[in-house]
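RECORD TYPE: protein structure
NAME: Response regulator
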Amino acid sequence: MKQQLKVLVVDDEPGILMSLEFLMKKEGYQVFIARDGEEALDIIEREIPSIILLDIMMPNVDGYEVCRFVKSTLKLSHIKIVFLSAKNKESDMEKGYAIGADLYVPKPFSTRTLVSKVNALALGIATS
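PREDICTED:
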């Protein structure tokens, strides 16, 4: 089932982008990458991913704006959003959840933990 699930990784840091792309492909997902929010919005409209791993602090359009757009667009609102951010204060996390995030993972994070959380989200998608 994972083969059909599309994951979009959005981060302006090339190292994080490459490692997450590798990790998600290794797990069997179809992976797309975007280096900023604008590029992410283009890919989201075109590919309609199942899950978005989304950084918050990015040039042009930040992660909060991407999340707001996805959750307020009827044909996209089902997409699961996982914020990955160095913004790790309680208030940052509350804001992320308030605008529609399904998960908020503060950086730095354990890749093993992230993969298990993404797989759990994917399982929820596959069984619904």
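COMMENT: Residues 2-127 form a domain with the Rossmann fold fold (CATH 3.40.50.2300).
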